[in-house]
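ok so for the tutorial part 2 we go from a plain amino acid sequence to predicted structure tokens. step 1 is just haveing the sequence, like this:
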Amino acid sequence: MSMLKYIFKRILQLIPILFGVLILTFFLSREMPGDPVEAHLPPLFTPAQYEAKLHQLGFDLPLLQQFFIYMGNLFLGNWGKSISINRGQDVWELIWERFPRTLDIAMFSIIIASFVGIKIGVIAATHRNKAKDTILRGFALIGVSIPIFWLGLLLQFFVSYKLGWFPAIGFKDMRYEDPQLVTGFRIIDSIIEGKWYLVGDYLIHLVLPVFCLAFIFLATFTRQTRSSMLEILQQDYIRTARAKGCKEKDVIKKHARRNALIPTITVIGLSIGGLLGGAMLTEITFNLHGMGELLLRAILDRDYYVLNAIVFMTTIIFILVNLFTDMGYAYLDPRIKYD
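step 2 — the prediction. this is what the tokens look like for a chain of 339 residues:
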């Protein structure tokens, strides 16, 4: 099976998965405790006011009828409007204001964690049970053990408040105005306008959140790479390469590391979902006003439409990343065929 046929087949398989996610999130969100109607009413409201607002929001209809209306609107590209957070604002407009900030943290973190984690894992494996390996494994153990929010608090206290090196909270200096939104990503929009000081300001504010998130996942990738490398280094073809006189660095780079990356790539792909979740928790810690805060408020305020859209979008990202992960296997190992 060719790569294009494989991708097309996988995309077709996404349709029932996404449809199932829509069904589950719709009905489960309606079972959440609390009443979103009360958020629209004064503290002392009358039954008549409650019934009027219930009818206005469409929550007086049977649940199954609400679902079919919701699905019909989705096919028309209408994901609804926020009922509690920013009342009346289109859901996707609200999400797109926040999503680029979360994606920035996640992408910077995954790139740094993957690159550094793989490098450290290879070094640890090639110096097995030596001082370098022991020290690196110690850092990796700390990384997989420490909670993200607690690491964020430590960085805020010591690096920001005590040393004053980087900002502790926020995603920009309040003296600066945001660039005109073109793509929604602040770095790209600042470059388009030629405001390089905004790029620098934004990157400085990302240092602590990105370090916090990258350190946690870097530890996981390091442990996986080390484990895979130790297994690969015991294979017969590695011994053959050394017996033929290949330089040790060529044995590591050309023969061992590439094969060891296959399980590591799998872990990186599976970590994307956790990375987005970790990014949401990290941005709350650093007050970045991203998807994490939006998701939390959607849950607390029972804003069903916003909550459903966030879960749906996260599902799409997770599935697509896994698709790209499968495609990466063929690049790393040409023997892998998609039959």
